[in-house]
Design goal:
By secondary structure, the chain is of the alpha/beta class. The chain has one domain: 3-Layer(aba) Sandwich (Rossmann fold), CATH 3.40.50.2300. A five-stranded parallel β-sheet has the order 2-1-3-4-5, with helices on both faces.
């Protein structure tokens, strides 16, 4: 029997953290929220979280710094970036760095949910574990 997925949310904006947390609660997903990358890394243990949703621009370490650090630790945890940063170079750096998805705000809850479902399947926590990206169907 597999454990219930646990999603980490790292964003310095209180309203965004609360909205994402509320959305995950409605979707029957458990989550932990963190206001900075440093706070998340202080509690990071391999395999504790099944997916990470983070912003790019935050005080201290950015979401890209966090992604780079996780990959340096050999973490394969899917990282979904949800940001207002529409710069193609930033998106490219994130995707090259191993981000599972780069979504620009405003993101509809349906789109985020599709990527989250896909990321959790990719991590082996979803219903079919097929590792495929989100479907358009």
């Amino acid at each position: 029997m597999s454990k219930a997925p646990l999603v980490a949310i790292v964003d310095d904006d209180d309203a965004v953290r609360e909205a994402l947390s509320d959305l995950l609660m409605v979707l029957d997903l458990s989550c932990r929220t963190f206001d900075r990358a440093e706070a998340f890394m202080a509690e990071f243990v391999p395999d504790r979280f099944d997916c990470l949703i983070t912003d790019v621009s935050m005080p201290g370490h950015s979401g890209l710094d966090l992604l780079r650090h996780l990959r340096s630790l050999r973490s394969a945890m899917p990282v979904i970036i949800v940001t207002a940063d529409t710069n193609p170079a930033t998106r490219s750096r994130a995707m090259r760095g191993g981000a599972y998805a780069y979504l620009t705000k405003p993101v509809s809850s349906d789109v985020l949910f599709r990527y989250l479902q896909s990321a959790l399947r990719h991590a082996g926590c979803g219903p079919d574990g097929d590792g495929q990206g989100p479907s358009d169907g």
